Amino acid sequence: EVQLVESGGGLVQTGESLKLSCVTSGFAFSDAAMSWVRQTPGKELEWVASTYEYLETKFYADSVRGRFTISTDSAKNTVYLQMNGLKPGDTAVYYCNAGAYWGQGTQVTVSS
Predict the structure, then answer these.
(1) Beta-bridge mates of residue 25
(2) Number of DSSP helices (H) and strands (E) in the chain, helices first
(3) How confident is the model over 24-67, as pLDDT tens digits?
(4) How many angstroms separate the CA atoms of 37 and 96, rounded?
(5) What region does 91 belong to: left with phi over 0, alpha with psi -120 to 50, or beta?
(6) What Rg value do the Cα atoms of the chain yield, rounded?
(7) Phi/psi of residue 88, nearest 5 degrees
(8) 72 vs 79: CA distance, rounded Å
(9) What is residue 87's DSSP assignment?
(10) Given CA atoms 51, 52, 56, 57 in this order, what sign does their dihedral have?
(11) Is 51:29 a contact under the CB 8 Å cutoff?
């Protein structure tokens, strides 16, 4: 059974940092393209960042480049999203994604 379990969300003030974690199981983590996607109520899903460990490549949305960092720990089958310089516009539910598989999401709220 494939599982993706996010954690690390919370309420922070503008300029502060959070680190999200997504612990995975049930698939070949080292071969997967892992992504973070976020959604604000009433809006479409917004892609945030992806990492292709087997290609040693990372991609970021323009809105987060330079502030967010995606990383992985293959030994723990875990993908992270370090979020620095948070803004109110970053408020959303953040989902971990591995192709057809999704986590349950973790809420990030940034107050002004």
Answers:
(1) 3
(2) 0, 11
(3) 999 989 889 999 999 998 889 999 999 987 778 899 999 999 99
(4) 6
(5) beta
(6) 13
(7) -55, -30
(8) 4
(9) -
(10) negative
(11) no
